[in-house]
Amino acid sequence: xxxxxxxxxxxxxxxxxxxxxxxxxxxxxxxxxxxxxxxxxxxxxxxxxxxxxxxxxxxxxxxxxxxxxxxxxxxxxxxxxxxxxxxxxxxxxxxxxxxxxxxxxxxxxxxxxxxxxxxxxxxxxxxxxxxxxxxxxxxxxxxxxxxxxxxxxxxxxxxxxxxxxxxxxxxxxxxxxxxxxxxxxxxxxxxxxxxxxxxxxxxxxxxxxxxxxxxxxxxxxxxxxxxxxxxxxxxxxxxxxxxxxxxxxxxxxxxxxxxxx
Length: 261
Prior knowledge:
The protein is an alpha/beta fold. Helices cover 43% and strands 17% of the residues. α1 (15-28) packs across α12 (239-254) and α6 (109-119) packs parallel to α7.
């Protein structure tokens, strides 16, 4: 089961937009069975797909004793065929790293859920985790379970300066999850400009893998969020809509972005 954490400790870089569009495209256009885990207390992916956190959510999973049937019961179906979701809730905000240390929260919650799904033949082709812009208990649980990290990045000075800290956090998690690797940085909100292209060259020269596909800046992304429809439905011919489909193909093996780190 391919498990991908979509992670950047900086907000506003397109993590949720990437999570909801990629999960939909993999399910609808690549006929995969996809589980989207919303690990962000802002609950944007949860609200986008219109599911009810009271019917099951990640915070409940992380704070309850491990019970396989209970864990699977937290997963909800979305209105889109092949796409399920484990919702977020505001309670995730209270699950900080100190609670992991005190054993009040199970860092292995996501790993245990996925292991049970595999053991019982209910596993998914791809699991995507929409991580919060902070290194907290939910982020730690995601990185323990994941085998890949995708880093959406907006090409500005603030995002580039924060990359070293983010990569350091991922490398630290490798001490307890050796399978974890950075698959690549995904450039989002791209537009043609000399400064932006210089920033891209800096990123490409940093030693980090960078996906060939760039997601173009598009006002249709804002419209998508209000309509609660993925770009492939809301505006399939928009620049970002075209780019996310190209990115899905690249991620599935139709393009080269390096070997990860």
